[in-house]
Amino acid sequence: PTIYAITPTYSRPVQKAELTRLANTFRQVAQLHWILVEDRATRSELVSSFLARAGLPNTHLHVPTPRRYKRPWLPRATEQRNAGLAWLRQRHQHQSAQPGVLFFADDDNTYSLELFQEMRTTRKVSVWPVGLVGGRRYERPLVKNGKVVGWYTGWREDRPFAIDMAGFAVSLQVILSNPKAVFKRRGSQPGMQESDFLKQITTVEELEPKASNCTKVLVWHTRTEKVNLANEPKSHLDTVNIEV
Ligand code: UGA
Ligand code: MN
Fold first, then answer.
1. Were 141 and a residue from 44, 94, 148, 184 both cysteine, which residue would form a disulfide, CB within 3.0 to 4.6 Å?
2. Which domains are assigned to the chain?
């Protein structure tokens, strides 16, 4: 099956560095299609030329987050992930679904290559641990007799699926047979987007544990430090205009 990675991304000083790191990982993965969705009204020149040279099958989408939703306490990238889902459904509407697996790959996380081997065998919805998240070294689904029976997490244990966006994959078939499943703005608090989405397409009992019954961390919720530009000149002083 093809792995579809939906990556929301937005313009900021570290963007090209993040995308470079991500592309270097994805280039090692067979049959991966990268769906990069910019949080912008138009496609940026930086991302367009980056993708043209990335050496990866890709689709370049864009949709701006409405300004009222650009708040630190509100969920991020809702519209961008939905744009990726819409593109997938549109592309596969006329053909009986080719085998495919979808996952949501934020541009700042760290992905091991083993993760892709694990997710490629997803039948419906698979799950695995995520490192460096939830105020702990890791969060993970608790597994008993091959089934998910609960969650090891330090944060909001009331979540129906106490899992980060980086902790699950969904088969294309499930995406196509649940055409209305989307990420929701209304009522969705930070940390609840994953649960709100997953409960539209699956149940906890049905989840397929990966990474040796969820005992291995193969993805890390790393977060890049905001860059210090205090010494950046007010007007352009250099003789060349360098893209960073
Ligand atoms: C956590 C989760 O890991 C995210 O999956 C979730 O979207 C997010 O919380 C949330 O609050 O909704 P966190 O590291 O705090 O992640 O969020 P970011 O990595 O800053 O953003 C998640 C993704 O959205 C990234 O791919 C980022 O490039 C993108 N993003 C962020 C935008 O497209 N626009 C923005 O304004 C901010
Ligand atoms: Mn992040």
1. 148
2. 2-127+166-210 (3.90.550.10)
Please list every protein residue whose CB sits less than 6 Å from any atom of ligand 1. Answer: 7-10, 39, 65, 70, 75-77, 80, 106-108, 164-165, 190, 193, 221, 223
pTM recorded for the entire structure: 0.97
The pLDDT tens digits for 199-242 are 999 999 999 999 999 999 999 999 999 999 999 998 878 989 89
Annotated binding residues for Mn(2+):
108
Neighbour order of strands in the sheet with 130-133 = 110-111, 219-220, 130-133, 136-144, 147-152
- The answer to whether the beta carbons of residues 142 and 209 sit under 8 Å apart is no
Percent helix, strand and coil across the chain, each rounded to 5? 30, 25, 50
Containing 138, the helix (H) or strand (E) segment is strand 136-144
ipTM value: 0.98
Determine the Cα–Cα distance for residues 204 and 207; give it in Å rounded to an integer.
Answer: 6
